[in-house]
Design brief:
Helices cover about 30% and strands about 25% of the residues. The protein is α+β, with helices and mostly antiparallel strands and about 300 residues long. It folds into 2 domains: about 5-125, Aminotransferase class 4, branched-chain amino acid transferase, N-terminal domain (D-amino Acid Aminotransferase, Chain A, domain 1); about 135-290, Alpha-Beta Barrel (D-amino Acid Aminotransferase, Chain A, domain 2), CATH 3.20.10.
Length: about 300
C-alpha cells in the first residue's frame, strides 16, 4: 500500500483569503467557528487537462450555499473562479481535484457568531477516481445505511454544507468495515435518496430513473448526466423510488465529482449488471469533461 501523506504535510500552494500561500502555511486557529459549529460549506470540483469542469456552476453553488448558511463571501464569483484556475496552474496538476471551502473564523466562539469573519480557501490535489478503476468497471457493492437523509424542514439541504456530511462519514465507515464500497441512504420517508457522496440512477426498460432531489443536494454531475442522457434520447424520470422497486431495475450507477459515473453491481441483496446505458453515459461523461475549450471561450475564462 502506498504511503499516505497527511494533508498538512503536502507541498504546493493554497489560496487563502486572497493570498497564494505555501501549502504548509495555510493555517487556521483551533478555535475556528467552522470547526466547532460546522459553519462551513464547500465545493468538490475536478480539473481535466487543466480545465475545471463546470467551474462557473460550482462557483455559483458555493455562493448560494454560503448565502443559505448566512455567510457573505468577501469576493465576487469571478474572483473565486479566477483563484481556482490560478491554484490549478500553481500546483501544476493537469488532472486534479479542486476544493474551495468557506468558513467562519475564530473571532467568536459560541453558537451565534455574527462578528466572525467569513474566510475562503481553495486547495488542489491529485485524486484519482473515487473507486478503484478495476473494480469500478465491474460495479461497486453498496449496503444500506442505518442513517437517513433528514427532512428539508430540519436541514439546509440545498447547501453543500459541511455538517450535512457527518452521517455520510458514519455510513461509509460502517459500509467499508463490513466489506462494502459505499452505502445507499434512504430519506426520512423511507424513499431511496443517494449514496454517501454521490447521486444514484437506475435503468428500467431503457429509461433512466433517479430520485427527486427534494431533501438532498441536486448534484452538478447528476444534472450533467441527465443532459447527456437526453441528448441520447434516453428518457429521464425524476420521482420518488421505494426500496421494494429495486428488483425491477436492470442497471444502477452513481454520479458525483469524485465518483464521476460509477456502475453499481450490488445493493444489499439486489444485483445489477452494468449495461449499455451505463456504459454509454460513462463514455459520454468521459468525453464531456475532456472536451477541448475553444480559443474564444478560453480567452473569456482567463480574462
Amino acid at each position: 500500500m502506498a504511503e499516505i501523506i497527511p494533508f498538512d504535510k503536502r507541498e504546493g500552494f493554497i489560496w487563502l483569503d486572497g493570498d497564494m500561500l505555501p501549502w504548509r502555511d495555510a493555517k487556521i486557529h483551533v478555535l475556528t467557528h467552522g470547526l466547532h459549529y460546522a459553519s462551513s460549506c464547500f465545493e468538490g470540483e475536478r480539473a481535466y487537462s487543466g480545465r475545471i469542469y463546470k467551474l462557473e456552476d460550482h462557483t455559483e453553488r458555493l455562493f448560494e450555499s454560503a448565502r443559505i448558511l448566512g455567510m457573505k463571501i468577501p469576493f465576487t464569483p469571478e474572483q473565486i473562479s479566477t483563484a481556482s484556475r490560478r491554484v490549478v496552474e500553481a500546483q501544476g496538476f493537469p488532472d486534479a481535484y479542486v476544493r474551495p471551502v468557506v468558513f467562519r473564523g475564530s473571532e467568536q466562539m459560541s453558537v451565534a457568531a455574527p462578528l466572525s469573519k467569513t474566510h475562503v480557501a481553495i486547495a488542489v490535489w491529485q485524486w484519482p477516481s473515487y473507486f478503484d478503476p478495476v473494480q469500478k468497471m465491474k460495479g461497486i457493492r453498496l449496503t444500506i445505511a442505518d442513517w437517513k437523509r433528514p427532512s428539508p424542514e430540519t436541514i439546509p439541504y440545498k447547501s453543500k454544507a459541511a455538517g450535512l456530511y457527518m452521517i455520510c462519514t458514519l455510513s461509509k465507515h460502517a459500509a467499508e468495515a463490513t466489506g462494502y464500497h459505499d452505502a445507499l441512504m434512504y430519506d426520512y420517508r423511507g424513499y431511496i435518496a443517494e449514496a454517501t457522496g454521490a447521486n444514484v440512477f437506475f435503468v428500467d426498460g431503457g429509461k433512466l430513473i433517479t430520485p427527486t432531489a427534494d431533501c438532498f443536494l441536486d448534484g452538478i454531475t447528476r444534472r450533467s448526466v441527465m443532459e447527456l442522457a437526453r441528448a441520447r434520447q434516453i428518457p429521464v424520470i425524476e420521482r420518488h423510488i421505494a426500496p421494494d422497486e429495486l428488483p425491477r431495475f436492470s442497471e444502477c450507477f452513481l454520479t458525483g465529482t469524485a465518483a464521476e459515473v460509477t456502475p453499481v453491481s450490488e445493493i444489499g441483496a439486489h444485483r445489477f449488471a452494468p449495461g449499455r446505458i451505463t456504459e454509454t453515459l460513462m463514455n459520454d461523461y468521459h468525453d464531456d469533461v475532456r472536451k477541448p475549450v475553444s480559443s474564444v471561450s478560453l480567452r473569456a475564462a482567463t480574462g
